[in-house]
Design goal:
about 475 residues, alpha/beta, two-stranded antiparallel sheet, 12 strands, about 45% helix
Length: about 475
């Protein structure tokens, strides 16, 4: 998707905080201008509720208006327009709220107009000051820039200029993983070179590459098959030339290394959407982590009595853009379950080996076959069926390795078998839950169907879709618990 790793949402949190601070300062100043210094507005119930509503309206308006998009790159004139739009939207929604709530007479209209007027002036100047200070910090400390891992596709005449532009970017740190030249030229000194487009695609599929930057002469066209393959893998493609690609991929104008580009991506996540998604992840991660501690205290004796060993199971998984991390679960299998996985490969319900599922897994704690051949299950099967084993993953969410909603993170051996179309699942952070888990297909054995659903989620990502999946997940969990 359009979101890149390492701090994309966090970089904009301070601007939303500036907006809220300016709103409250403006609200208090307007109240003093209207009513004098006898009291403060927070002591008056009506005005205390009004400033809360205004704060919520402003946050929603900022997200709806895309106020945080490219905030550091905006010039003063564009910033003035952005603040004006946010101010007008806040005023309009506040008026709509007071009309719908039939309480417009409870407030001074002059107070509201004073508030938006003071806010407009204060927010504009404070934003400009903060941006200038932020740019100075980025110039002095390049390590503070957001890292974007890229592969450059160019020719011998243009590669030097595009590499220089990327390396000189003040706002982002472009980590150039490799360079591919279509005319057989030489890459700038110190940069790895990949000779052919096909080899470049294999490199993108196997290595940690967030985006591809294409810079070719005006008379040359970007290789359509290459662009389509990158888009299929969920890797954003930025080109300084117009290009087209088939299917449902999103095209939008962007800026990379100081150049205007046309970007092709599976989907585009705005900074505001990324901010809200990460905020929800943090809140949900905190609540889930607390629940994980409580659940761990309750189920630990049952697990450890039946199978002595660690309470937590740590397994290496592949996250966004190939980043490896340790996924946490409450242990539901015997300690040497991974070592015995190969012995059970013949019983895997997924024929191509892209996932591992058994009808009856003897490695699960408490599972056994009686003398008369009947299969009995125990505590391990219970915590798996009720998804209690998944709760430690909320710690992965807090660390930023996972999200509440996303795709299923593959194991390294699964990932090694991926074709180009499968890599799209790594275009965003993996999730505790996802579209295919709540589509009535959590026991699916067709890996291509899993990929289709995961890719469908990424291509159609919206915050409302995340909310829908989370609600469906709760329904599924309650049904499983009730079925026990």
């Amino acid at each position: 998707m359009g979101e890149t790793r390492q701090g994309g949402w966090l970089k904009h949190a301070d601007f939303m905080l500036i907006d809220l601070v300016c709103l409250h300062v403006a609200f208090v100043a307007a109240y003093f201008l209207r009513f004098g210094f006898g009291t403060i507005p927070y002591a008056v119930p009506e005005y205390r509720s009004l400033v809360l509503i205004l704060s919520l309206i402003q946050i929603g308006g900022s997200i709806a208006a895309g106020n945080l998009n490219h905030v550091l790159r905006r010039g003063k004139a564009d910033e003035l327009w952005s603040v004006a739009v946010l101010t007008a939207l806040t005023l309009a929604l506040a008026a709509l709220y007071m009309y719908a709530a039939h309480n417009g007479t409870d407030y001074s209209r002059l107070q509201v107009f004073y508030t938006v007027g003071v806010f407009f002036v204060l927010d504009y100047f404070l934003r400009c000051w903060h941006k200038a200070a932020a740019v100075r910090r980025l110039r002095k400390n390049p390590a503070a820039r957001r890292t974007r891992s890229v592969l450059v596709l160019s020719d011998g005449d243009n590669v030097g200029n595009i590499v220089a532009d990327l390396q000189a970017d003040v706002y982002d740190h472009f980590e150039i993983r490799a360079v591919t030249l279509v005319d057989g030229g030489k890459a700038p000194e110190g940069l790895p070179q990949i000779d052919t487009v096909d080899e470049a695609l294999s490199f993108i599929c196997r290595e940690w590459v967030d985006e591809v930057v294409i810079c070719l002469p005006a008379q040359s066209a970007a290789p359509t098959a290459f662009v389509d393959a990158c888009a299929e893998m969920g890797v954003a493609v930025h080109s300084v030339l117009p290009l087209a690609t088939q299917g449902r991929n999103v095209q939008y104008v962007d800026e990379v290394g100081g150049r205007m580009v046309l970007t092709v991506s599976l989907n585009h996540v705005s900074p505001a959407q990324a901010f809200v998604k990460r905020t929800v992840d943090i809140v949900g991660g905190l609540v889930g982590s607390l629940l994980a501690v409580v659940i761990g205290i309750v189920i630990a004796p049952f697990i450890l009595v039946k199978s002595p060993g660690p309470l937590l199971f740590k397994q290496e998984r592949i996250g966004k853009n190939g980043k490896k991390f340790k996924l946490l679960k409450f242990r539901s299998m015997i300690p040497d379950a991974e070592a015995k996985k190969q012995d059970l490969a013949a019983k895997n319900r997924v024929a191509d080996g892209m996932m591992f599922k058994l009808d009856f897994d003897p490695r699960i704690i408490g599972n056994r076959v009686t003398a008369d051949g009947k299969q009995k299950t125990g505590i391990g099967e219970f915590i798996r069926k009720t998804s209690l084993d998944e709760f430690p993953q909320f710690f992965n969410v807090l660390k930023g390795e996972m999200s509440l909603v996303g795709t299923r993170p593959p194991t390294p051996d699964e990932w090694e078998k991926y074709a180009f179309r499968h890599r799209a699942r790594l275009a965003q952070k993996p999730g505790i839950t996802g579209l295919w888990q709540v589509s009535g297909r959590s026991d699916i054995t067709d890996f291509e169907e899993v990929v289709r659903l995961d890719t469908e989620y990424i291509a159609n990502f919206k915050l409302s879709l995340d909310a829908k999946i989370l609600l469906k997940t709760l329904v599924v969990l309650f049904r499983r618990t009730g079925a026990r």
